[in-house]
Amino acid sequence: MPLDKLIVQQIEFADKILVNKIDRVNSTVLSQICNQVRALNPSADIHTIQHAQIDPCAVLNTSAFSFDKALTYGAWLSTPRNATAVSELEEYNISVVRYERYVPFHPARFYERMAAGIQGVLRSKGVVWFASSNRLAVQWSQAGGQQFSLSSSGPWFAESVESELKGVIEPSLIEELVKKEYNYSTGDRRQQLMLIGVNLNESSIHQALDACLLNDTEMNGGPPTWRKMEIDDDPVTSLLFPAAAAESPQQPDEHGNNDVLEEAF
Q1: Is the distance from CB of 41 to CB of 17 less than 8 angstroms?
Q2: pLDDT tens digit string along 146-171?
Q3: Hey, which bits of 70-227 come out as E strands?
Q4: Which of 143-152, 204-213, 250-259 shows the lowest per-residue confidence on average (mean pLDDT)?
């Protein structure tokens, strides 16, 4: 069965259908999408949403499923329950690649790589760590062929710990506390991405993303050097904080902090 037919069957069989990312299309396109979905499934509840935000009560424990109704739908039970069936992931060569590292991304290299796209990726999401915004956890999201989006997720938890204890105990003790809590020197700062697509090559994707990480020389410079990337070579800050990026950049202090970015979040 072609993948498009599988998707159509899933729409036809659904009780609740969520049309997400409605902010990415105009009202005319949205109306066309909803009309097409309604034509496939006149009885389903259709919810139009942004950023997957919906009242859980609208989709959980609604008792909308009817087994009697399900029995009337096509051949959804054509494969006996005790038979071995090929999963949808296998049938359509859909694969999942997980990526986790404890080194920050160079903002310009990451932006260039992601703007070019990664072949076969249909959906990716996760949390990323940029050297130029060392204090900030950044949410990453990309769907289909659309431009990726970045959004602030607030400071890393380790950053909160460091800020609270700064001036109270020695910096070396703070570092040891963070290492002890998370079992590595970066606290909870990390790259944690999941990419879903067709015929993905895990090794190639890992290599492409690894090339965006800071190299050893850049890592040795530490946060004060990293933060200069915000001024010299950082397209990421302007995506996260367009208003702050429009202001005259300020030089980072000895800890790699910058008042413009601090005010932005």
Answers
A1: yes
A2: 567 888 888 887 777 766 666 776 77
A3: 94-101, 121-128, 136-143, 149-155, 191-198
A4: 250-259
